[in-house]
Amino acid sequence: MLDLNDLAMFVQVVRAGSFSEAARRLHMPANTLSRRIDQLEGQLGTRLLHRSTRKLATSTEGQTLFERYAPAIDQILEIGRLHADEHAPSGSVRITAMAGLFEFFRMEWLVEFYALYPHISVDFLLDDTPSDLIAERVDLALRMGVETGSGFRVRRLAPSAMILAASPAYLERRPPPRTLRELAEHDCLTISTRQGRSTWRLQGPRGSQDVTINSRFAVNDMRVLAQACVAELGIALLPQLIVEPAIAQGKLARVLSTWRRASAESGLQLVYTSRPPVPPAVAVFAEFLVAKLGDTMTTPSKNNHAGKFVTLPGTDDA
Length: 318
Description:
This protein has three domains: 4-86, Orthogonal Bundle (Arc Repressor Mutant, subunit A); 91-160 and 265-311, Periplasmic binding protein-like II (D-Maltodextrin-Binding Protein, domain 2), CATH 3.40.190.10; 162-261, D-Maltodextrin-Binding Protein, domain 2, CATH 3.40.190. By secondary structure, it is of the alpha/beta class. α2 (19-26) packs across α3 (30-44). The protein has helices spanning 4-16, 19-26, 30-44, 60-87, 107-116, 168-173, 222-230, 240-248, 280-297, and strands spanning 49-51, 56-58, 91-97, 120-126, 140-144, 153-158, 162-166, 187-191, 199-204, 207-212, 214-219, 235-239, 253-254, 260-261, 268-272, 309-311. It contains nine helices and 16 strands.
């Protein structure tokens, strides 16, 4: 009985016009391909290809075999592709993320993802304001510095403390605060919330404390908040991942350096709204995010819990 794989290889060699090109298309060594064609010729008891160092041509028997079976081989391969497509992850993934996501998430990553999963589409909602994940039909939430509601599975990607910062020019104009209480005397810049809160909860030498602030400027975009801080508008509580480059460039300076917001929820985290089993399209995109962002933003020595799941207790309210 003929081996259909050998027959398919023969068809590929004829179409490619050379063993080297056919081997490249089939992702196999050229000498292995040549051996398989020799095997097929041995089974049939006839020469299928005339080979020389410069030319490859089909024999009369080889041309007859090609014309008779190439269409059937194509149909078999197409059936295989259709069967694979039916079982490949497909559908849409709706993800909400911080407005500054594409400051560090590269577009070429999406090109790579779509090449791997051509039947998946991704819908990004970029907003730094906490949202109702269920009401907005969100599959995944990529968050930084936002406390996540209870009842969701959370995957920690990177620790990122929120630290206080201001521009050097602002701190020359307004004496830097020496205590948390003195923050109330300063112009503070905040992320807009639906609750309109004007309180920061910070951790420091004396534990956790709530401090009332005077929010002179609020916006629901972390990038704009950082820009406002650089523009001398006041003091902001920003993710350390965003602040550190600006501090290194001299655009921002730390304020009350012994205080920060460093709860488990303040780092970069991936939130799942679906209970197990997670839809295949959501699962593969989540793993893709973990791989790309985990490699970019963490090191094992700094984050021993990166990539691990945590289920927050409670209900499904966001």
